[in-house]
Amino acid sequence: MKTSEFLELLKENTNKSLVFEYQPGALVGANYHITEVKNISIDAVDCGAGTDAWKETIIQLWESPSEIGKRDYMSAYKALAILNKVDKIKPMEKNVEVKFEYSNATFHTAQLFVLGHQIKDDTVLFHLGVEKTDCKAKETCGVPETSAQTMETTCAPDSGCC
Questions:
Q1: Among 106, 111, 112, 121, which one has the highest count of C-beta atoms within 10 angstroms of its own C-beta?
Q2: Are residues 61 and 77 in the same domain?
Q3: Domain tally, the chain
Q4: What span, in angstroms and rounded, lies between the C-alpha atoms of 24 and 46?
Q5: How far apart are alpha carbons 159 and 162 in whole angstroms?
Q6: What is residue 148's predicted lDDT score, i.e. its pLDDT?
Q7: Residues 45 and 120 in one domain
Q8: pLDDT at position 149, please?
Q9: Nearest-CA neighbor of 30 among 77, 78, 62?
Q10: Do 85 and 101 sit in the same domain of this protein?
């Protein structure tokens, strides 16, 4: 999901609670805060010597230990106010992927993609998830897309790839 799409959903649903599902059936606690917004520029080289560059917006969610048990989620209106304030200080790239950085005591720190969203009653629910790492140079390196075991044998240390 693009940052602009996320912001537009907030604008269209200001009176609703903003809820995040970080893995199936597990919600970020109502005690969450938006603690950081990052404008990220990635300049990368893959294992086949291909170069790439892109930008992302990372919104960090943090659960406040002093508010454990809180029942009311942040409203889309409040989140939008926070993000608009950030945008005035450090303008966000709007046409780039938005991700959410999150962790808790039982879930490792991860940058989560928006897999989808639902709007029902008084809630905007964003379904988040991880994407698996992948070899971007399969064709260059001659790696079939079949299995990780094939990749291990094809991308040996002296193969010139991976």
A1: 112
A2: yes
A3: 2
A4: 31
A5: 8
A6: 52
A7: yes
A8: 53
A9: 62
A10: yes
Size of the chain in residues: 162
List Cβ neighbours of 37 (8 Å cut-off, separation of 6 or more).
Answer: 57, 58, 59, 60, 83, 86, 90, 92
Q: Distance of CA 65 to CAs 9, 68, 99, 109, 146, Å?
A: 28, 6, 23, 17, 44
Do 62 and 125 lie in one domain? The reply is: yes
| 65 plus 115 within the same structural domain | yes
69 and 11 co-located in one domain: yes
Amino acid at 128: L
Q: Which two three-digit tokens encode residue 142?
A: 């001659």
Segments forming the whole domain that contains residue 105: 3-131
Half-sphere exposure of 159 (CA within 13 A, CB side): 16
